[in-house]
Amino acid sequence: MKNVQTGLACLLLGLGVGMIYGREEKAEGPVFVTEGEVFDGQVTMLDKFVEACLAQDATACADLYTEDTVYMVQNQPALEGYDEVLNSYQALFSENRSAEIEMAEPVQQVLSMGDFAVVRGSGYNITMTDGVSEKESYKWLILSQRQTDGSWKMLWDIYNYDDDYTR
Fold it and tell me: Which residues share a beta bridge with 143?
């Protein structure tokens, strides 16, 4: 009987120790973050994007995308790969513009998944041409990927402009 009690005590002690020290958090599950390295990396990536757009620097914009990126804009075919994204920004910035532009893309939500993150936000452009101001607002969703140097780049970028649904 004493051996059964000793064995049972050892089993319970082993289970207790295993439950306490075996509770390792699994990093593979997605978790929403509002601070820290992953969140800050997304904010930095978007800040660089806005800065590059305002400077009309096509290469700086495209350099924030991965080589195998997919870029989806409403009413246009999806662009696949870095070169197509670069060509698209070059075409956009080659248009003759005499307007002042203001732009913002604040991050609203970040879902961290290890070396990937889903980032959601909205943005706006305000264009001032000949004293007339025009504001366009939009929403976006990005799947970003951590690079070997620790920076983040866009793997998928999806956005569309808000529409006036009161018509």
Answer: 118, 156
